[in-house]
Write a structure and sequence with these properties.
- The complex is a heterodimer.
- By secondary structure, chain A is an all-alpha fold.
- The longest helix of chain A is centred in the first third of the chain and has 28 residues.
- In chain B, the strands form 2 sheets. In chain B, strands 5-2-1-7-6 form a 5-stranded mixed beta sheet.
- The chains are: A mainly alpha, B alpha+beta.
- At the A-B interface, helix 1, helix 4 and helix 6 of A face helix 1, helix 2 and helix 3 of B.
């Protein structure tokens, strides 16, 4: 029978505490949020997030067309994007059926007041839309991923178009930079559009 | 300036270790002197881990070690938390988008003052947290003192000298820091033999 002395127990406890602290620090630094396997339920959650984004974009363009006195190509862009976003909303609502969320209350503040503020906000919304779809792509089932890919490619065209209108590089990267899903959501919340 | 009086007493199951003159202040500043080896054994310690001995606080070695370990454990999360960068708020993320913190603007927008104002990094300001080195500076002396005490304790334990073998000095108050014993007188060469007597008298 092994006799555990107080000294041995103390030393073992110290080693265990130290090991646990080191492991906690290391794992805490590198742990990724757990993702469950793609499922129909998870598809609904992700597509509802996409639907929320589409609601915002659709309402944003509609309000800007009424309020911002847009002209020229910027007006053409807003009209084209508004029509596309409205179709995206309808497609997602149809795919989700009764699980589709309701349209949120929105307030765009002064971001639809003039052309300059509109173009800046539109650039951020379109870029964020692409990032949001890409961040959730690994969590979708195959069927939902196929439908999302058809939407995100159009969103990326919007993003390139508004970038070009703002004098920015329409395609700055060969591969879209990866942005964490939570960072996309936090950034989207930071717009203050959702009431 | 030497601090000659006992500074700390640490007890174990054999008795109490009294550490004299552990610190010496000289022109170069505070340093730990060699006099830390002046350790004497006192009467056997009581069963409690903390007790009073002639006005000194006597703490069991294990209890002291545990307290130090707990102190360090409490300080470490503060250190790691202060070392972590501050997370930007959603508003800051939106204003800086699509820039990552510390990133430069991708392309300057002609006449876009709004975007230029929003392209500053949100992480450039200091949040006023505790610097990472402050807890380390607080914990380092504790670790050094604990290591020295444990080293001395183990060295003394290795000799397995009972506590009651301390030989008092003539004055009965001071203590020797080495094992005193009576040494035999040094061997002397034999005195030369007396010279031979010649003549047999007269």
């Amino acid at each position: 029978m092994t006799v555990l002395t107080r000294r041995a127990a103390l030393e073992a406890s110290a080693v265990a505490i130290g090991g646990a602290m080191v492991a906690g620090v290391v794992l805490g630094e590198h742990a990724d949020p757990a993702l469950s396997r793609p499922s129909a339920k998870q598809d609904a959650e992700i597509l509802n997030l996409a639907l929320l984004l589409e609601y915002v974009q659709s309402a944003f363009y509609a309000e800007a067309l009424r309020r911002a006195a847009l002209t020229g190509e910027l007006q053409t862009f807003a009209q084209t994007a508004a029509a596309h976003e409205t179709e995206h909303v309808a497609a997602l609502e149809h795919a989700l059926g009764s699980a589709a969320r309701k349209a949120p209350k929105l307030d765009f503040g002064d971001d639809t007041a003039d052309a300059e503020r509109f173009s800046l906000a539109a650039f951020k919304l379109e870029d964020l839309g692409v990032a949001a779809y890409n961040a959730q792509a690994p969590n979708l089932t195959r069927g939902a991923l196929t439908a999302a890919a058809r939407i995100v490619s159009v969103e990326s065209r919007h993003a390139a178009w508004i970038r070009d209108l703002r004098g920015m590089n329409p395609a700055p990267d060969a591969a879209e930079p990866a942005v964490e899903a939570q960072r996309v959501i936090d950034t989207f919340k930071g717009s203050g559009y959702l009431q | 300036v030497s601090i000659a009086r006992p500074l700390l007493a640490v007890g174990n199951q054999f008795g109490a270790i009294d550490i004299d003159g552990a610190f010496r202040l000289d022109a170069a500043g505070l340093r730990i002197s060699d006099e830390i080896s002046r350790i004497r054994m006192l009467a056997p310690a009581e069963s409690s881990s903390v007790r009073e001995n002639r006005g000194q606080l006597v703490v069991n070695v294990r209890t002291l070690s545990l307290l130090i370990a707990l102190t360090i454990a409490l300080l470490l999360p503060v250190t790691s938390a202060s070392a972590e960068p501050r997370q930007p708020t959603p508003k800051e993320l939106w204003d800086a988008y699509p820039l990552e913190p510390g990133e430069s603007p991708p392309v300057a927008t002609p006449g876009s003052e709004v975007e230029a104002a929003s392209s500053s990094s949100p992480n450039q300001e200091d949040d006023g947290g505790i610097p990472w080195f402050v807890p380390l500076m607080l914990a380092a002396p504790l670790v050094v003192v604990a290591a020295m005490m444990l080293t001395e304790h183990r060295r003394r334990s290795a000799t397995k000298r009972p506590a009651d073998q301390v030989v008092p000095t003539a004055s009965g108050t001071a203590h020797r820091s080495f094992d005193w014993r009576d040494y035999p007188p040094p061997a002397r060469p034999a005195p030369p033999s007396p010279p031979p007597v010649h003549g047999g008298g007269s």
